[in-house]
Design brief:
Layout: H1 3-14, H2 17-31, E1 38-41, H3 48-56, H4 61-70, H5 76-87, H6 89-95, H7 102-120, H8 125-131, H9 134-145, H10 150-166, H11 170-185, E2 188-191, H12 202-211, E3 215-218, H13 221-231, H14 234-246, H15 252-257, H16 262-271, H17 287-317, E4 332-333, E5 338-341, E6 344-347, H18 366-381, H19 383-395, E7 396-397, E8 399-402, E9 405-408, E10 422-425, E11 428-431, H20 432-448, H21 456-466, H22 480-485, H23 499-502, H24 506-515, E12 524-527, E13 541-542, E14 547-549, H25 559-562, E15 566-572, E16 575-581, H26 587-593, E17 599-604, H27 617-640
Parallel strand pairs: 1-2, 2-3, 3-7, 9-12, 12-14
Antiparallel strand pairs: 1-15, 4-5, 5-6, 8-9, 10-11, 13-14, 15-16, 16-17
Helix pairs in contact: 1-27, 2-27, 4-5, 4-7, 5-6, 7-11, 12-19, 13-14, 13-19, 13-20, 13-21, 14-17, 16-17, 20-21
Bound molecules: 1,6-di-O-phosphono-beta-D-fructofuranose (FBP) and manganese (II) ion.
Manganese (II) ion binds near residues 220, 222 and 529.
Pathway: Carbohydrate biosynthesis; gluconeogenesis
Family: Belongs to the FBPase class 3 family.
GO molecular function, one term: fructose 1,6-bisphosphate 1-phosphatase activity
Length: about 650
């Protein structure tokens, strides 16, 4: 478009020169406000309750704000009580045993207004307005910004509150105020991968993310399985189903995504026997569940075998993946019940050989094909999955550079000596940032053609899940087969890419940051994917503070290894804060304990200078708008002459 036409269009948006001035002043004011709070979360793994809890409490930030507002007058007990009220207002009101007298309501509303005022102080009025519930926006604004003498104000407040309460709106008002506070406590959310798998609530998390006011997403290896399932990667789809069987929430997928599992269940019931190696992971059992387990064992096996066959097919047609050592089924000696891996023979146990055709080991049987087709149809017709994958494509990426930080889920593949490891895709060799960009390019290409199921791009989605050079995975191989069938635990080890030890060194982190154009000394890497084993003395801060690992560790099954639930990260205008989470069992337990066990630790960056919006990614965009408006004014002046 010609510059002149652009100015005309821009001017039409404002209508008058005065409006342009007003917008300029507004934008310049925004640039000088303190930077808003970001929350970084990762590895949520279907734990929707824990996720909901973290969002409602702003990962401990809500309590921090309450302490800052009322510290001089309230004790811990009162702070905890109020945190609970703001985080779960509906439930709090419902559970309250004392009478909710008019005085109590009035006091609570005034306290909430006070807190809201504090939380809103670093935002523009227009932004605060957008965060308020429509029905109460006017009243709340009156209460927030009322000018005048103390006495006048008090009378005015008194009158408004009296009215709200006599109209029976007190409780609704309390809920509305609490939700607005929640909304302002976290301004932007970063999901550093792995919302999906190992827990049954991923769809609820995705529903919530779709509506979240400001969010970005770095794909994790588990999310990529779901994206793959939607866009035609059969092997990704079967793998996520196998994991769902392993963690015992397979049936929930019928309701969550409308997946028809009947053909799969019928096939498994007919072709498989029970096999304790495939008993789903679960903690407590009742009689009905035991019966269910038997069926699930069969389904779980059926899925594992289809997965190994499909993997074999991909590895055979994609020599460039260099995964021939993972062509496992052909390495089995069925009569001797052994497998040969890297010239070593290992015994295998309970391998269900009945559905393997010795003449064509990786071929699916007609029945398996039928099951696969019907599942594919189900996945590709699922409306919620379509929406969720659309969200992943729109808000998600392989990595993100935001406010001078580099975010990615897994790793940047490195060689032992710290150089970037290269990988060849369709004849081109890529490394470092270019490698991540290339993966992203192919993922998006595959997503444009969901009817093609075996092209290079779609196969590469599966590679992202478990390939050695996949930045989302970062391990030499995925030993799923070994863990199911080979008792020798030595074979279960998944060697990590050198990145995972080299990232502890400042030099490595600096090199990676520079590769992504980040030269500032305050630049940091924010990483997910690997649980921080607190029990073994590991910490989430590495490389002299250049890198944070924030595996939220919300997957219950993994809490044994970590010793806590996990870590997340906050970043406000003063710098980073590391948040330590305790295992979340239920809201009931939180209400019983009446306290938020989350702890927040400040990591003030070197010099104590508050970061303003002008120093952020959004600030750069606002500056561009300002520059445009200034140019527009210049243009208008010339036009007037
Ligand atoms: O414990 P499970 O569910 O069998 O999963 C183990 C597999 O998951 C992985 O850890 C990948 O998942 P993460 O991205 O959560 O680490 C594989 O490396 C491993 O083979
Ligand atoms: Mn991961």
């Amino acid at each position: 478009m010609k510059r002149e036409n652009y100015y005309k269009l821009l001017f039409e948006k404002y209508g008058s020169k005065e409006e342009v001035y007003a917008e300029l002043i507004n934008l310049e004011a925004i640039l000088n406000l303190p930077k808003a709070t970001e929350l970084f979360l990762s590895d949520i793994h279907g734990a929707d309750g824990a996720f909901d809890y973290i969002l409602r409490t702003g990962a401990g930030n809500l309590k921090e704000k309450i302490v800052a507002t009322f510290a001089s007058v309230w004790d811990f007990e009162k702070v905890n009580e109020f945190t609970l009220l703001v985080a779960y207002p509906e439930l709090f009101l419902q559970e309250m045993t004392e009478k909710k007298t008019n005085t109590w309501q009035k006091e609570t509303i005034l306290d909430l207004i006070c807190l809201l005022k504090f939380c809103a102080s670093k935002y523009t009025r227009s932004k605060v307005r957008k965060s308020l519930p429509k029905e109460f926006a006017y009243i709340i604004e009156e209460l927030l910004y009322m000018e005048g003498a103390a006495e006048e104000k008090e009378n005015y407040y008194e009158q408004i509150l009296e009215r709200v309460i006599t109209l029976q709106q007190g409780e609704i008002f309390i809920v509305a105020l609490s939700l607005s506070i929640q909304r302002l406590v976290i301004d932007h959310l970063h999901i550093v991968g792995d919302v999906y798998d190992r827990g049954s609530g991923a769809h609820k998390i995705m529903n919530r993310l779709e509506k979240f006011h400001s969010v970005d997403f770095q794909w994790g290896n588990h999310d990529i399985l779901w994206l793959g399932a939607r866009v035609g990667s059969s092997c990704s789809m079967i793998t996520l189903l196998r994991i769902a069987a392993r963690y015992k929430y397979l049936l929930d997928l019928e309701e969550a995504y409308g997946i028809n599992l009947r053909p799969l269940y019928l096939f498994a019931e007919k072709n498989y026997k029970t096999n304790p190696r495939f008993t789903p992971k679960a903690t407590e059992k009742n009689a009905q569940e035991i019966e269910n387990d038997e069926l699930l064992e069969k389904v779980h096996q059926a899925l594992a075998i289809i997965q190994f066959k499909l993997e074999g097919q991909i590895i055979q047609r994609r020599k460039e993946f260099q995964m021939d050592d993972r062509l496992l089924l052909e390495k089995i000696d069925f009569d001797r019940q052994t497998i040969t891996l890297e010239d070593e023979s290992y015994s295998i146990e309970s391998f269900p050989r009945a559905t393997i055709d010795p003449q064509d080991i990786y071929a699916l049987s007609a029945e398996e094909k039928y099951v696969l087709d019907s599942l594919t149809t189900s996945f590709q017709n699922s409306e919620p999955l379509k929406r969720h994958v659309h969200f992943l494509l729109e808000k998600g990426a392989m990595y993100q550079v935001y406010n001078g930080q580099l975010l990615f889920h897994g790793c940047i593949p490195l060689l032992e000596n710290g150089d970037f490891a290269s990988f060849t895709l369709e004849g081109h060799s890529y490394e470092g940032k270019a490698l991540l960009d290339a993966f992203e390019h192919y993922i998006r290409q595959s997503a444009r053609n969901i009817d093609i199921h075996d092209d290079f791009a779609t196969d590469l989605i599966w590679y992202c899940w478990c390939g050695e050079k996949s930045p989302l995975f970062g391990r030499k191989k995925m030993t799923t087969f070994e863990r199911y069938f080979i008792p020798d635990k030595l074979t279960h080890k998944e060697m990590e890419n050198p990145y995972f030890s080299l990232r502890d060194e400042e030099e490595t982190c600096k090199k990676i940051l520079e590769e992504f154009g980040l030269f500032d000394q305050n630049a940091r890497i924010i990483n997910g994917h690997t649980p921080v084993k607190v029990r073994k003395g590991e910490t989430p801060t590495r490389a002299n503070g250049k890198l944070f690992i924030i595996d939220g560790g919300m997957s219950r099954a993994y809490q044994k290894t970590t010793g806590i639930a996990g870590y997340s990260l906050l970043n406000n205008s003063y710098g980073f804060q590391i948040v330590t989470h305790q295992p979340f069992k239920s809201i009931e337990e939180i209400f019983e304990q009446r306290k938020d066990p989350t702890t927040v630790k400040n990591m003030i960056d070197g010099k104590f200078k508050r970061r303003l919006i002008k120093d952020t990614t959004i600030g750069k965009e606002i500056q561009e708008q300002i520059d445009d408006l200034l140019e527009l004014l210049g243009y208008l002046e010339i036009a007037e002459e």
